[in-house]
Design goal:
This protein has 318 residues and is mainly alpha-helical. The protein folds into two domains: 184 residues, P-loop containing nucleotide triphosphate hydrolases (Rossmann fold), CATH 3.40.50.300; 85 residues, Winged helix-like DNA-binding domain superfamily/Winged helix DNA-binding domain (Arc Repressor Mutant, subunit A). It contains 13 helices and eight strands. The chain has a three-stranded parallel β-sheet, covered by helices on one side. A three-stranded antiparallel β-sheet has the order 5-6-7, covered by helices on one side. The N and C termini lie far apart (57 Å). The relative contact order is 0.11.
């Protein structure tokens, strides 16, 4: 039932999960203020993962207050009217995070994605938050030791080599599967060979239409709001009189190259990493470059040298 289960869908490829837009008001969860429930942008994925960590912590506080050990006991107690809604108690649905291409996230965001996912995988099971990660590239820098240690159930379809099979399952076998849904399930010590059912696009479309045409909630399930504290603090604490002595040189360099990169400032101005990092934070707070975007260079918000000189003059006058 939609009241008992919500999905958080992450689709870096942008085309795999779009069919599920129709069930947004029934089964999907999203951040407050977001237009789309299906997440395709890396920065939004990071915010969503951190938001799920906040949701997890809030749920643990509710379980502690209710003196229960897991979500099932908590919801049973709530249904029996033993918990007061005026004390923030509410019925808690299961939340399942599904990431369609985990390799893309690891390449673009790395640790920023890995840390909250590992935390959720370690702790969130008891409060009804579960994770499903899928990737077509089972290499060790994608499926890291931290990720593997926290995902007890793993499924492998046919892979090209025994190394890929070992990366997923810690044993060979997936390289000898025959394809077409033939798969191996590992739940710790045992390997079970299974046949996965094939569901084609028209069938998914038909089911989504059927659910979407029924009466749903006014909007998708709202996750807690997550504010990037470092970015917020940088914006609040920026003081023109307190900026680095190389601030203007760095601004000119970045606008000339149209590349908001810490390594560019380090290289050209011969600065250490920490100082270059502080300068890029000041440039972001001042509005010269955009926010951090994983491994990509930041967007430069000032188009040319003339506009920059006007901008710097205004800063001095302020």
């Amino acid at each position: 039932h939609p009241s008992q289960l919500k999905f958080v869908l992450v689709d870096p490829k942008k085309v795999e999960l779009t069919l599920f837009n129709k069930i947004e008001r029934h089964f999907l969860a999203k951040l407050p203020g977001e237009a789309d429930a299906i997440i395709t942008d890396t920065k939004k994925v990071i915010n969503t993962l951190n938001s799920l960590c906040i949701e997890m912590d809030q749920r643990y506080d509710l379980l502690k207050d209710a003196q229960v050990r897991n979500l099932k006991e908590y919801n049973e107690k709530f249904i029996k009217r033993k918990l007061n809604p005026n004390n923030s108690h509410r019925f808690l649905p299961y939340i399942v995070l599904i990431v369609d291409e985990f390799a893309d996230l690891m390449m673009t965001a790395g640790k920023e994605v890995e840390t909250p996912i590992a935390r959720l995988a370690q702790l969130a099971r008891a409060v009804g938050i579960h994770l499903v990660l899928a990737t077509q590239r089972p290499s060790v820098n994608i499926i890291t030791g931290t990720i593997k240690a926290n995902f007890p159930a793993r499924i492998a379809f046919r892979v090209l080599s025994k190394i890929d099979s070992r990366t997923i399952l810690d044993s060979g076998g997936a390289d000898q599967l025959i394809g077409r849904g033939d798969m191996l399930l590992s739940t710790g010590n045992d390997l079970i060979r299974l046949q996965c059912a094939f569901v084609d696009t028209p069938e998914v479309d038909r089911i989504s239409d059927f659910i979407g045409n029924q009466r749903g909630y006014p909007e998708a399930y709202q996750l807690p709001e997550y504010l990037d504290e470092a970015a917020e603090n940088a914006k609040l604490e920026f003081d023109a009189s307190d900026r680095d002595s190389m601030f203007e040189d760095a601004a000119r360099l970045i606008v000339m190259h149209q590349q908001g990169s810490t390594s560019l400032i380090q290289r050209k101005l011969k600065l250490g990493y920490n100082r270059a990092g502080r300068i890029i934070d000041q440039l972001e707070a001042a509005g010269v470059v955009g926010p951090f975007e994983g491994s990509k260079a930041r967007e430069v918000l000032i188009p040319d040298d003339y506009a920059l000189e006007q901008f710097l003059d205004n800063l001095k006058n302020d």
